[in-house]
Design brief:
This protein is an alpha/beta fold. It has 18 helices and ten strands. The protein has a four-stranded parallel sheet, with helices on both faces. Strands 3-4 form a two-stranded antiparallel ribbon. It is a multi-pass membrane protein.
Length: about 475
């Protein structure tokens, strides 16, 4: 019998990273205080506020610099970059808030000790995580209950979502007769042997993946009940996919989409909507004031390399499908669409040199705060698209227009997780993210999006 492998869920891995980041730093600082003459940071009861603020700064800047993005946490180069940036900003802000943190030490060498204690402890823990906890040895074995013609695609999508899943085999939901022991490279399991197979191969989870309302064969259903009674985790594929990717599997759901995806009550929660509207007005006023400070730079840049109108407006589709005019700083040549509307793409030749700077820094979007003040847009929501693109995409995705049940936004769950769409296929992926936001819309998710947006701006990743 194979030994049982260790597996951490995605959410558990992120919590683990956050907790041990703070613990590793505290352990290093404690070692400094008892081993050397280090007095800047103290673990006395009177220093509880300073301790809490350090943990807060580590988690805040770790989030901004993507320390808790599992792909970043599994890449050696990204670990080095994110750890250095997080340490620098943590130490910088900690030193600048002496009301909540210790007074600056007279011996500036103490600050250097403080900096390297944080940096080296984070490095040590993150490289331990990379080589042990992020290893493919820590996988979750699962068995699918699905039709034979879908196992390959389902396994492919789940593997993309979380490579730590290992497909041990599948049980056909259509027939009790095993026609082929190997289907598309996956072992087909006889339903009568399912319980034995789960025990023998240390299967952690059974995933049911049935499209539409197709019933499970009664004998297979009874086997699943037996496994459930014995403590085996049984989950539905859409639940697994949504948890792993943080987007909705709309292609898998097909015509059952409306039945299977209840949307967030926040979409109709008056208190939430009033609070968010107040935040949007305040944020927009501050954004426009800051945009006014940037206006001379934009004017000079536009005059040098982007001659033509400073602003441009364009029709976009808003809430409930109502069109509105969007405002932006112009970043493309003046006759960018003389041959018709096309999707913006990476390295688009229509974007001027200064326009690239405006887009990557997101400065081109500052005039959209006018749209937010007018009520056409929100700060957070799906990206507003042009009517011509909405019509084209809706022909291929009949439920695409569901994204219009809320206001479009300056930033959103799709924008911070995926690049600008260059095709209908890209729009499909972005739609999955947009609908995830609409389903789970909350203050917590909104704050998460704002932090990720700050990360995009600081890393100069706009397009």
């Amino acid at each position: 019998m194979s030994s049982k492998k260790i597996h951490f869920e995605i959410s558990e891995r992120k919590v683990l990273l956050r907790l041990i980041d703070v613990f590793a730093v505290f352990a290093a600082l404690y070692f400094l205080t008892v081993t050397f003459k280090f007095h800047y940071f103290s673990f006395k009861e009177s220093s509880l506020g300073s301790i809490l603020f350090l943990g807060l700064y580590i988690n805040l800047f770790g989030t901004i610099f993507e320390m808790y993005n599992l792909q970043v946490a599994s890449n050696q180069f990204q670990i080095v970059k994110s750890t250095i940036l997080t340490t620098c900003m943590t130490v910088f802000c900690y030193l600048l808030t002496p009301v909540f943190t210790p007074i600056l030490p007279s011996n500036r060498l103490q600050i250097i000790y403080f900096f390297f204690a944080i940096l080296l402890s984070l490095f040590a823990w993150r490289f331990f995580y990379l080589h042990f906890l992020a290893s493919h040895r820590f996988v979750k074995r699962v068995v699918f209950v699905c039709s034979r013609d879908t196992i390959a695609q389902l396994a492919l999508e789940l593997g993309k979502a979380d490579p730590h899943y290992e497909i041990a085999g599948f049980v056909s939901s259509e027939s009790l007769v095993v026609e082929n022991k190997n289907t598309d490279g996956f072992q087909e399991i006889n339903f009568a042997e399912l319980e034995f197979f789960v025990k023998k191969h240390s299967v952690a989870e059974v995933v049911i993946a049935l499209k539409g309302t197709k019933p499970i064969a009664p004998d297979v259903y009874q086997q699943l009940l037996n496994l459930l009674e014995k403590g085996v985790v049984i989950r539905e594929y859409m639940q697994v996919y949504e948890h792993a990717t943080q987007r909705l599997p709309i292609l898998y759901a097909e015509k059952d989409f409306y039945r299977l995806f209840p949307f967030s009550r926040s979409n109709h929660n008056r208190l939430y909507l009033i609070v968010m509207r107040g935040f949007e007005i305040l944020f927009s006023v501050l954004g426009l004031l800051f945009g006014c400070l940037l206006l001379p730079i934009v004017c000079i840049g536009n005059a040098i390399s982007n001659k033509g109108p400073l602003f441009y407006t364009q029709e976009r589709v808003g809430k409930n499908g109502i069109p509105f005019r969007i405002y932006k700083f112009r970043s493309m040549i003046t006759n960018a669409e003389q041959h018709g509307a096309v999707f913006a793409k990476a390295n688009d030749v229509r974007i001027t040199p200064f326009g690239k700077f405006l887009r990557r820094s997101r400065i081109d979007e500052f005039p959209q705060f006018i749209n937010v003040l007018k009520g056409d847009m929100a700060v957070i929501g799906p990206r507003p698209e042009r009517p011509v693109f909405v019509d084209a995409i809706s022909q291929k995705m009949p439920f695409y227009q569901i994204r219009h049940i809320i206001k479009p936004g300056l930033t959103g769950w799709a924008q911070v997780n995926y690049s600008y769409g260059e095709s209908i296929e890209d729009s499909m992926v972005k739609l999955q993210y947009d609908l995830y936001y609409i389903k789970h819309r909350s203050v917590f998710l909104d704050v998460n999006i704002i932090i990720k947006t700050l990360s995009t701006v600081l890393f100069y990743r706009g397009q």
